[in-house]
# Entry
Amino acid sequence: MMISPEKQQLIGVQVSTVTEEPLTRTIVTVGQITYDETRLARIQARVEGWIEQVFVDFTGKWVKKGQPLLRVYSPELLSTQRELLIAKRAKDSLGTSAFPEISANAQSLYEATRDRLRLWDISDGQIRELEKRGTPTRTMTLFAPVEGFVLTRNALRGQRITPEMELYTIADLSTIWVLADIYEYEVPLIHLGQPATMTFPYFPGKTFTGKVTFIYPQLDNQTRTLKVRLQFPNVDHQLKPDMYASVSFPIDYGRKLAVPESAVLDSGTRQIVFIAREDGHFEPRTVQLGAKVNDRFIIESGLTVGEKIVTSGNFLIDSESQLKAAMSGMTGHEH
# Structure
């Protein structure tokens, strides 16, 4: 179809050249900070007994790795220490026995008693100290296995404890997780290891950098969103669990052949772009669209670099084309 330059100007036709261009966009969503579940430690005693002394007596306290938490009196532990000292004396005295079986039995009993203490979290260093001292200790001290903050405390002085009781929960907050919701149409753009940034209104000018570490398998049926888990370093402990943040995912599509959104006419069954010829002719061309990036469509097929396309006034060109086609049909019918 041909349109005169005057009419093109009247209907506001604008033309641009198809090019390949670098395309990027950013997905922005809300994230909530939570604990890194791999850095949670739950403290339990391996023996039955009674708490004699509590060293860490409130939640929120920061503890170092190896810091004493509480002291436990355990009759069973006391008895086993005595057994070890007796077994060691027997091993030492019978080690040079002329009867190998007696020597081997003494060694076996000693090793079995040591193993029982190890199963109760008594370290080799503590066992060596016991053997050097020669007398059992009345109590056992539980130490923090990790550095972090005390989340829960269920240890009270005088309390009877059993192995299944959780006495403390300690969280290492040097790394935190962030859970973010992604709309289902954005899910294909997110992948493991993808970088992300996080900002807070109360940390102006500060940006935290992390990455996607897990994409949950199930979609929320109500919100049509998928949870994505990110990991961020938190060495200075500025970030606290349950804080809300703005999370941004930069998406890089690379260099793509793309056209402005305004250049595409969608008929419902196909997408059309008008090609502008030098002689004033306009040719409708069916194209296959890819992703929409900001105000541009990626073109999968139908156009080549260097072609001239209509970016404004194409709706009126389409109307003019349909009108001319209808009039042509009427003229043909009259003949």
Q: What stands out?
A: The first strand starts at residue 14 and ends at 17. The chain has three domains: 5-18+264-334, 26-36+175-252, 39-171.
